[in-house]
Write a structure and sequence with these properties.
The protein is of the alpha/beta class. It folds into 2 domains: 177 residues, NAD(P)-binding Rossmann-like Domain (Rossmann fold), CATH 3.40.50.720; 125 residues, N-(1-d-carboxylethyl)-l-norvaline Dehydrogenase, domain 2 (Orthogonal Bundle). Helix content is 53%, strand content 12%. The chain is built from 12 helices and 8 strands. It has an 8-stranded mixed beta sheet with strand order 3-2-1-4-5-6-7-8, with helices on both faces. Strand 7, helix 6 and strand 8 form a beta-alpha-beta unit.
Length: 319
């Protein structure tokens, strides 16, 4: 972005996600207009912004004065005001088709022609609430954040079949400018990537409690002290790639049958076919040739050591 360019975001909905998006955009230097139909929510926003900025400053996560960032967020009393002159209008309303459909009709009328219209929907695909008779349907998509996005900076860009390629590309660029890491969901599925992965863990966690395999507390310990630590450094594919000498292909050969049996216990039949393993293996080898496997394993271990040091220091501070 040119240093003289000032981006503008309109945010519709001042709940926790709307306020969090306001922080994301304001920290990136954008001018933000935030609207909510509830006067009480609008009145609460300045204090909530200030509180979160104070916390970010306490952890040295701001690049400028909190007051300068807060000054970029204006709470307005009309959707039309929030959307006017915006480069991006981000809807953060409840997960209801009727509400989102009406809001997008209003946003389409109010926003300038170049503006992207995005929904923070967690599960609903855009095709569920975007009427293709909407004049601006080609500029509409879902942009689902991690919560809160000012601390979990991944955002899922989910175009509908009606979304133009230019809209998707521009959305990726805009959210990238705002400091987020866009990932593209290549087809509309309920829950997208984030909640499908989270849901898979939750389904098994509930089953383990139901079947008296483990307690709620012990399952959380396994995630917090085990899988969560690894996955905060590398994702599930890289994890198993580095856990088995020979990489993904070797892991699938050795462990695939066990995972298939575990899935069958839950009535699932999603085999790791040779073709699927080859596809994942190709992606991993493109990212990491096997000749560099040992080097990457050492890197992983050093990252985990840094985390261990951080947790030890935190536990010492809390004692």
């Amino acid at each position: 972005m040119n240093a003289l360019t000032i981006r503008r975001a309109g945010i519709i909905g001042a709940g926790s996600i709307g306020v969090a998006f306001a922080l994301v955009f304001a920290r990136a230097g954008w001018q933000v207009r935030l609207y909510d139909p509830d006067p009480a929510r609008r009145a609460a926003v300045p204090d909530e912004i200030a509180l979160r900025l104070d916390d970010l400053a306490r952890f040295d996560l701001l690049d400028e004065a909190a007051s300068d960032i807060a000054a970029r967020v204006a709470v307005v009393d009309a959707l039309e005001t929030a959307a006017a002159d915006a480069d991006l209008v981000q809807e953060c309303a409840p997960e209801r088709v009727d509400i989102k459909r009406e809001l997008f009709a209003q946003m389409d009328r109010a926003a300038p022609a170049h503006a992207i219209l995005a929904s923070a929907s967690s599960f609903l695909a855009a095709s569920k609430f975007i009427d293709q008779t909407l004049p601006g349907h080609a500029r509409c998509l879902v942009a689902h954040p991690g919560n809160p996005p000012y601390l979990i900076p991944v955002i899922e860009i989910v175009p509908g079949a009606f979304t133009s390629e230019a809209t998707t590309a521009r959305a990726i660029a805009l959210f990238g400018e705002a400091g987020l890491h866009p990932v593209t969901v290549q087809k509309e599925v309920e829950g997208f990537i984030f909640n499908r992965l989270q849901g898979a863990v939750l389904r098994e966690a509930y089953c383990l409690v139901r079947d008296d395999v483990a307690s709620v507390e012990d399952i959380d310990i396994v995630m917090r002290k085990g899988l969560g630590l690894r996955w905060s450094v590398i994702g599930p594919f890289e994890t198993v790639d580095l856990n088995t000498r020979g990489g993904i292909a070797s892991h699938a050969e050795k462990m695939g049958p066990s995972y298939a049996r575990m899935g069958a216990e839950r009535g699932q039949h999603d085999p790791w076919t040779p073709e699927l393993v080859e596809r994942v293996e190709a992606a991993r080898r493109h990212a990491l040739p096997l000749a560099k496997w040992d080097e990457r394993v050492s890197w992983r271990d050093r990252q985990l050591m840094r985390l261990a040091r951080h947790h030890r220091q935190r536990e010492s501070d809390e004692a």
